Amino acid sequence: MELVEAIILAVLAASTPLLIAATGELVTERSGVLNLGVEGMMIVGAACGFAGAWLTGSVFIGALFGMVAGTLMSLVFALMALGLAVNQVATGLALTILGVGLSGLIGAGFVGERITPAMHLYIPVLTDIPLIGRVLFGEDGFVYFSIALIVGVWWFLYRTRAGLILRACGDNHVSAHALGYPVLRIRTFAVMFGGACAGLAGAYLPLAYTPFFVPGMTAGRGWIALALVVFSSWRPGRLVAGAYLFGAVTILQLHAQGWGVGIPSQFMSALPYLATIIVLILLSRARTGGSTAPAALGTVFVPDR
Amino acid sequence: MLDPTPNGQHSGDSPLLRTSGLTKRYGDFLANDSIDIDIWPSEIHALLGENGAGKSTLVKAIYGLIQPSAGEIRWQGQRIVLSGPSEARCLGIGMVFQHFSLFDNLTVAENVALGLDGKESFKDMSARLEQVSKTYGLPLDPRREVWQLSVGERQRIEIVRALMQDPKFLILDEPTAVLTPQEADQLFIVLERLKAEGRAILYISHKLEEVKRLCDTATILRGGRKVETCNPRRETAASLARMMVGGEIKEVKAASGRKTTVPRLVVDDLSLPPADAHGVRLEHISFELKGGEILGIAGVAGNGQDELFAALSGERLSKDPGTVVIEGIAAGHLSITQRRRLGAAFVPEERLGHGTAPRMKLSENALLTGHAASGMVRRGFIDTAATLKAVDRATETFDVRKAKRDPEAASLSGGNLQKFIVGREILRSPAVLVVSQPTWGVDAGAAAVIRQALLDLAAAGAAVLVTSQDLDELAEIADRIAVMFHGKLSAPLAASDASREKLGLLMGGSSLEPEEIAHAAGA
Q1: CATH architecture of B263-522
Q2: How far apart are CA B302 and CA B118, in angstroms?
Q3: Domain ranges of chain A
Q4: Chain A residues touching B99 at Cβ < 8 A
Q5: What is the pLDDT of residues B196-251, one digit of tens each?
Q6: Prediction ipTM score
Q7: Beta carbons of B154 and B300 less than 8 angstroms apart
Q8: A288 contacts in chain B (CB < 8 Å)
């Protein structure tokens, strides 16, 4: 029982940064922009988040630092890919390389420092319920926030007019422009939202997951978040399922090693990507028409004026 | 309501919309040069002109999509400056785009909502959508996604969307280009009704007969300038065309004494499954094409014409070699290059990306189709002089206008590039030419050159297969016309017997009466 609870708690903790980063990227991609710089925005978010928390002693302010840093990184991307209509794939990859370097620079002075990690919720009686108590009522604020975030994004995309317009930009930017929607402005906001989410997801790592900063601590989580968006076929509901599945795989990989299961850990680490490829194949086989990906994803748009 | 005449008396003292001196400049290029146009209520006003005459620029400025460089727009006497389409929509200006401004992966209702200002709830909007579509006889299912719909249905969405704003003035950009004649007739009924309700319509079209039938006034643009405003009912199609082109259009003439000899292209019971989810299944297509003959294939786009072209050109192979026979040799399993060696040549619909590699020079593009059978390659090395000579010959013979001797394909205008592509294939003297939409989006002068070239090629003994959506074009050059619908090909009708009504019925999927088929087969 103890072990099951521990595994569930570990899975939730491992899944939360994936869910937050992927939610942001989902919104970005739904607007038609492919930002491959998630890993870079996350790692800068981690460094700045830790710096913020260390300097002020507040996890909350640290999280804000992370979001602002991620947003600033995404603005670099927006300037290049939207403002100057540079190839999005190249810009995104460059952003990741920039982010890895920048985070090492920012975080250099903080390596070896410790902070007090994010508090976990404690409600007497409820949290003490065996098995589900700590899972439901004993998490840190990030976990609850991530759930609220994805529900909010679902509601925004499918229940609000602004969300409809954002999806329209991702489907056909020429039509959206012809109807008078400011495609580039909408996409800039979507990219900024993606950046803020990636920064927050990065900040989660030193603020709640492990209470210290290590260079390169995102360890490919940004790439898993990108794969996750594809895995979810750009749907918020499937994104939640995928995030916990991918989180579970990373945790199981650790436990499998502990139990002495004879599967190489590298194979387990590769599972999320393998799963994404399989889902992509299944989707394209099962498709009857229309496109699962936003039709304008990754294409450059230059309005004529 | 009085019938308004261009220079006569109108009810009310000021027009609904007036542009004066409207100018739009792109760098050195004047897309619109000081255009004055008046639009009155209850008027269907045609806007005519060749490609590049400035029609689209003008309506974009009126709809607020682009800002004019000079001149002014007055709406009901008031000077207006539009910062965007939503302002135009607020005033009561609606627009139906030529290339539909729809979102394939959204539902009909969502598409309509995006064209409105969003002041009412989605539920109210959906209810109103149903009501408007019923009132005007434009049936639509609001819950379906656009990619599932036919072209005609898609246009209905555009029109309903525009009508939901209760516009006083509606702009339609080539609305009938993709419709069957019957669908076009239904559209005309709707337009007449809108006119009777006191709305004004600006109608852009290339189809002069249609304009004569429908429109009260016509403004003709040429090279960015207004040439004339006239009453199209008092003009002939030829006089309108003259004003558009600024000179006589050479009439296309079939050379006499064409010989129908041996079958050069035979398609026998060709069936192919669709290549992808959006594709069309080809079902039991059979026809025989003799030398000296032009067979036209009509039909609304997306009924299998692209698939048939791919099967004939060898872009898609058939399991049974005997389904496509070129010059007596079973070729269904042969590649494009092998088919070219048999004497076939192919001109696809898409000029850039399919017919030519856009960023490559013309000489390189000549090589791409000519390498198999034109002696441009010697022992694996390119004979640059030969490729340049091919470009020069095509340029000379077909009057291809370009800035330098050997520019990139993408730098040519649509009409000139099409002349080059058709010329490139014709100058190889093919035995069989398969050409798809030869004059799509090409101005009248270039179209005449291309049609004449096809006729001359047939007269020289080649078999020519032309797929086109333009019935007038097929009537002009084809000996026989067959219709594609849902991947099936009708029995060919003799061109003399193929009335618009009959073709229209076939294009809509109706079959002709048995005696008509018997008649057609006998022809």
Answers
A1: 3-Layer(aba) Sandwich (3.40)
A2: 33
A3: 2-219
A4: 174
A5: 999 999 998 877 888 888 999 999 998 889 998 999 999 888 888 888 877 766 66
A6: 0.83
A7: no
A8: 277
